[in-house]
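User: I've been going back and forth on whether these two constructs are worth ordering. Before I decide, could you fold them both?

Assistant: Sure. I'll take them in the order you sent them. The first construct and its structure tokens:
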Amino acid sequence: MSGHSKWSTIKRQKGATDIKRGQTFTKVANALTIAVKLGGSADPDSNPRLRIAMEEAKAVNMPKDNVTRAIDRGMGRLPGQVLEEVIFEGFGPGKAAFLIEAVTDNKLRTLQLVKNLFERSGGNLGGTGSVSYMFGRLGEMRIKSKGRGMQMEMLELIDLGATDVEDFMEENIQKYLVYTEGSELNIMSNKITQVGYEVEEAKLVYKPTTVVEIKDPDVVRKVLDFTQKLEELEDVQKVYANFDIM
């Protein structure tokens, strides 16, 4: 269990900076398509990844027809380029480790775009396994407090099976990031709901196991600029990093 976290006030800069920034329907459509393709089902009840992607589509008010087309594409019912999921790894400014999830119809094109950003930032794109060992694949849930006190609630969440709990404030509301093993995400989410918490979001993430502290203002600017540029690439779905701004 962790104590008070700066995660919210710095917009969770050390962890997943997901597809909410620079959100586009293309990104969400690709997420839906790849979820169906890899999950082998168009039923969100039996395909957790699809359910998460559909929640993302709802959050950005994606038209229902767009959602249906993306799902049909994943099932092979519609013509179009074949999408594949790719993960890139490397070190960016401040020697921070970056893990990038992308969905693309042209792996070489996406590779070159990502590589160029790494090189311009002074970092370097690595091979498979170069930084992924610094991250754990976990289920993450963002939930609201029940108002019973932070210590009591964090202990309750741990007792339910959480592997870690981080607290933060959002618009003066006490909230928590609750972590569990990736395979237990749906089970844990149901447990949390059953004891009265509101689960605002549940998803699979790569959570850093080691953190690089960044204090120099110039390096802070560079690492945030680099992160934003990665997120703005159309093929990029999610960006994970292990830096913490001090």
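The second construct, handled the same way:
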Amino acid sequence: VSDILSVSEIEAGSFKISADDVRFDALLEQLQADYEPQAKQKQISLAFKLPPKLPVLQGDRDKISLALHNLVGNALKYTPDGGKVTVTAVVGEQQLALDVTDTGIGISEDDAERVFEKFYRAKNARQANITGSGMGLALAREIVRLHGGDIELQSEPQRGSTFTMTLPISQKAA
């Protein structure tokens, strides 16, 4: 329900993004702590491959956290027991790239074009009876775009997916 409300706020132009300093390392530490229990329960290897120093970003900590939770939560949801989810951060000169890679059910090329649409759910996700609203990726992408970044997808059915989130590094914080 909160995802639907947030997307409605974005469309209405009333979705507020603050411009605070965001410690990305702290966000990822919390993300890992939040999802370790779920990964253990499904016997999924959840690995975080991070550089020793991550930049401070400008943005809305809670909204960026929501986007990250949608990406990692989906990776765990669509990865079968015994699979693997890896979160990898790469710091460039002007942007931070974060890959969320899973060994899940993957997404067909046709569905990959549409998974960022509101309420859309990939055919294989529906067939596997995995619950979801079809709002998480739409919301995550909109949040990241409002921060000057983007989310892209590379996927292969039955092999898994990689969602790449990029966010600009502010010159002040660099």
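Notes on the second construct follow. The mean pLDDT is 86. Residues 2-168 form a domain with the Heat Shock Protein 90 fold (CATH 3.30.565.10).
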